[in-house]
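Lecture notes, part 5. Sequence design as translation. It can be helpful to think of inverse folding as translation between two languages: the language of shapes and the language of residues. The source text, in structure tokens, appears below.
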């Protein structure tokens, strides 16, 4: 038994420390991953519309 899959794949993204600080200043220290997920989804949608 175990925890069911959340449909997510863990990946490592290296960001400059200053970028992380800026994000955390805007969204808080516990919302970094959610912010990055949302930013990636928004950028994918934007680029897919161009195709």
């Amino acid at each position: 038994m175990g925890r069911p899959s959340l449909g997510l794949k863990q990946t490592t993204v290296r960001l400059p420390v200053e970028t992380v600080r800026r994000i955390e200043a805007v969204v808080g220290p516990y919302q970094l991953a959610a912010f990055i997920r949302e930013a990636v989804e928004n950028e994918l949608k934007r680029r897919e519309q161009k195709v």
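The translated text above is only one of many valid answers, since several sequences can fold into similar shapes. The two ends are 43 Å apart (CA to CA).
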